[in-house]
Amino acid sequence: MGILTAIQRFSLHDGPGIRSTVFFKGCNMRCAWCHNPETLSFTPEVLYYQSKCVGCGACAAVCPSHTVKNGKMVYDRAACSDEGRCAQVCFSGALETCGFEADVQRVMDEVMQDADYYARSGGGVTLSGGEVLLQPEFARDLLRALKARGVSTAVESNLNVEYSVIESLLPDLDLVMCDLKAWDEDIHRKWTGAGNERIKRNIEALGRTDKPMIVRTPIIPGVNDNPQEIAAIAAFVSKLPNLMYYELLNFNPLGESKYLALDVENAFSAARPLPEDRLGALADAARATGATVRVG
Amino acid sequence: MRDRINKLSPDADVSYRERLRILRERKIEDTKDKAGINAFADGDDYGAVKPPDDYDFEPVFNHPAGTFVGYDGWSENFYRMMATHPVFIDPCDAFANRWMNCMAWTRPIKFNPDLNYDHLKPEQEKYGIVSGIGSDAHFGGDYDIGLSLGWGGLMEKLKKYRALNPGHDDFYDAEEKTIRGIQEWTRRTVEAIDEALKVETHPDLIENLKQMRDCNEHLIEGAPRTMREACQWMCWFNTASREYNRDGAGCQLDETLRPYYERDLAAGVVTPDEAKYYIACLLLNDPHYYQLGGLSPDGHDMVTYFSYMILEAADWLDSSCNLTVRVHENMDRKFLHTAVDYLFKNKNGWPRFSGDKALSEGFMKKGYSAELARQRVAVGCHWMSLPGLEYTLNDCVKVNCAKVFRLALDEMMAAGGEKSTEELWRRYDAHMARAVRVTAEGICFHLENQVKNEPELMLNLISHGPVEKGLDMSHGGAQFYNMCIDGTGIATVADSFAAIAQRVEREGKLTFDELYEAVRGNFAGPKGEYLRMMLAASERYGGGDTLGDRWAKRISRSFTDQVNAMDEIFAPVKFIPGWFSWSNTIVLGKAVGATPNGRRDFEPINHGANPHPGFRRDGALTAMTNSICDIQPGFGNTAPVQLELDPGMARGQEAVDKICDYILTLFAKGGTLLNINIINAEQILAANENPDLFPDLVVRVTGFTAYFCLLTPEFRKLVVDRILVA
């Protein structure tokens, strides 16, 4: 069984062609700008979207952490231990449980509904997260099932695991997409909670395989949005013989509502995507190293 | 109607592109002028302009009840309307005239009072049937007939067949009077151009007006000889046909005009840019429905360089258009790519896409050859037509399945016997069978009597049969009678069945009685609202192999069988099922109380074959598309996919490729028609708040495109709701 947060179909930005993306729950890095904060923890969590609450009180009837005051629900998250029962009785969309257990068949039943679209477009299924490689057995079984049905596979990973874990999945993978979020070790550690030496080693090791790779860097205002950082990463990845391209991903501000729903502070709530000219300048700096660069 | 003569200084840039820019701005002015006029609200853009303030047309009545009917009434009034219709000249335009009024709007009584179908009305009312009785047009003519003969040639043809069909003088008299009316309008137009030439001072526009004059003078009698004349003749037919009964069917535009262009090019009388200017002006004149590409009768791809030229011309115009690209497996992939590029670039809802495979194979199941099926081109809101060969009532006949469902639910609960989804289905299906039968009887009544109400005097002229036989298209003139019967409300009904199956039968969260009490009480009170939200959150149609999807398939299969069964009963008339509500989504909803899918009293039913908004958490287009492909009736009519896409979705060529692959897959899976809006959610919200600030915002409402500012608040809400939830 795997623990997932969502299966998103008709995904156009997670690899070649039309794809479905399976989001794994749980991550071993803590990127301060993460726009999928609900994927960090390995356990199911309740998200509370206050604006959708109609004050019906159904949640309060099953969990004492919910009380209705003046027609508005008050949610004491710390006191909540109902394992999502409150979300099960909420139909306004205000409360929802993020995270569910699924076996391979459950995922296959969903993603194979779009097999015709994958086949025509050169797309397939991408495993993403969270961090896929922290659930390696489930990932392997799912990838094998997909390959057995002729579906192209990809993984999006932070590569912050032992190489042997990555290696065990390679036979069933058609594409590896990975992030290198900062070149400078200190910057990387400060903003993600993890160093980048192992990630770099894994990227180099993958570069010695024949598996196509896409390396990406999310451009984060005040963290890595300078030509030195980007050029250094580009120079590194440009040497990979199996690199399809190096991609710069503009800052994604869409995680804000999920931070609010999780009642967690978003350190980047005020940040905004870079203007096109600045992003273009970073892409130019990357291209100057000889790397093939895309801007996502 | 605004005066556009001599408004530019003699040294102004009037290149073809600049003329089109000016025409586009002027069209926005015309659109603003139309705002607030009921006749122009909630419909296609149509290209009409507001008539002058002092224009008035009073029809003469030939029925004592105070209306006009039949050959005599329609031809007499049409002639009078043409004889007094305002003339519209714009020196920047290649073609003269626009339409401003419509005969059908001037009838105080819309149906011949002598024709009584009271025996059908109780059940039509009971089942929410839009009967189509008295509806007009909604089939396609063959423009080649008119283009090859001109008005003079058509007069000769009428004369010839009058002699062969004694006893049909009323038909031939009416048709001749119809043509004479158009010729009269054209003559007055030539005179108006002469007057404009006395005033206009820009040398290039004077030259344009001279050519316009010569072109129109020739067309009073003669058949078109050049591309310019062919386009002007089409403008005449289109505007006159709109004035007659708002007919909007077009043709296979690329193949219709290409021979004229090639002849002119070889003779050195037209340049490619000039030709694109002509095409753009034709599209501006009236956004009739035109198909591009597809398969020829012998099965080869009809996309040519000229198909590209039409897309380029539409891009030059950058306004409302109803162009349809016919998609098939072996089509020029680059053409599809170009079409998608323009869709995202201009965000005007064109082109849309129709699927050759399912449409042709489906139509063949009705007993027609592949050659004929390939000629059935997309020339209507959601429909195809064999040009000049078939009479259809396309998009005119609807069965309100949501009303039938609610009736079955009320009946089951009142009976006090078994309460289950199977029992509900048994009752629903029995009522649907009866509703379809009543609908077919209404269509046959229409076929028997429509000629005494409103003959098709314009479309008869460009059809194969009416002139030859002296019979109206609705009354024996057509070669084929393939009558459209559309079901509506499939998602409303499927979601209602699914909600009951899930919440009552599978989960036991409420009883049938509790459910019915909530539905009958319109989900009033906190408990009612809680139950409503719970029911609405059930497994819905569009979700991907959900309970709702499975019910939708069952509903569509049964409806399809019921419609097809009418062929044997009413032969030789055939009936073709589809799923489409057009803008009746609102009206049909107003006839139905609350339903177990969480829909409140009188709210709109679902749109066409689309799921209700919010059908799936990720809104996956593929899931929705698969569901719609699965419920296709599959006999040559459509159950369209209506999409709202964000402009950013096709950023870059790779993304456009993916959209093309999506389109090809959709049609390979049995899809029939795809309408796409490229809409920025923020813009549509702002336009909804203040439509006057967005006079050029075009949306594809259903199968047709419309200016957002011309929609009533109810219709705007329909569009806004779809977009917001998407």
Task: Give a verbal description of the structure.
The complex is a heterodimer of chains A (296) and B (726). Chain A folds into 2 domains: 2-29 and 103-295, TIM Barrel (Alpha-Beta Barrel), CATH 3.20.20; 45-98, Alpha-Beta Plaits, CATH 3.30.70.20. Chain A contains 11 helices and 13 strands. Chain A has helices at 58-62, 85-88, 104-111, 115-121, 136-148, 163-169, 185-192, 197-207, 227-237, 256-262, 276-287; strands spanning 2-11, 19-24, 45-48, 66-69, 72-75, 95-98, 100-102, 124-128, 152-157, 175-179, 213-218, 243-249, 293-295. The two termini of chain A are 33 Å apart. Chain B is 51% helix and 9% strand. The longest helix of chain B is centred in the middle third of the chain and has 33 residues, at 421-453. The two termini of chain B are 39 Å apart. The mean pLDDT of chain B is 94. Chain A binds chain B through residues 6, 8-10, 12, 17-18, 54, 56, 58, 91-92, 109-110, 113-114, 116-117, 120-121, 123, and chain B through 526, 529-530, 533-534, 536-537, 544-545, 617-618, 620-623, 626, 649, 655, 657-658, 661-662, 664-665, 668-669.
Number of strands of chain B: 15
Main sheet summary of chain A? 9 strands, mixed
Count the DSSP helices of chain B.
27
Please state the oligomeric state of the protein chains shown.
heterodimer
Order of helices and strands of chain A: EEEHEEHEEHHEHEHEHHEHEHHE
The pair of chains with the biggest contact is: A-B, 21 and 26 residues
Tally of structural domains of chain A: 2
Q: Class by helix and strand content of chain A?
A: alpha/beta
Distance between the termini of chain B: 39 Å
- The Cα radius of gyration of chain B reads 26 Å
Report the sheet with the most strands of chain B, covering strand number, pairing sense and barrel closure: 6 strands, mixed
- Indicate the low-confidence ranges of chain A by residue numbers: none
CATH fold description of the largest domain in chain A: TIM Barrel
CATH architecture of the largest domain in chain A: Alpha-Beta Barrel
> Would you identify the regions of chain B where 5 or more consecutive residues have pLDDT less than 50?
none
Work out the strand percent of chain B: 5-15%
Helix content of chain A: 25-40%
> How much beta of chain A, percentage-wise?
15-25%
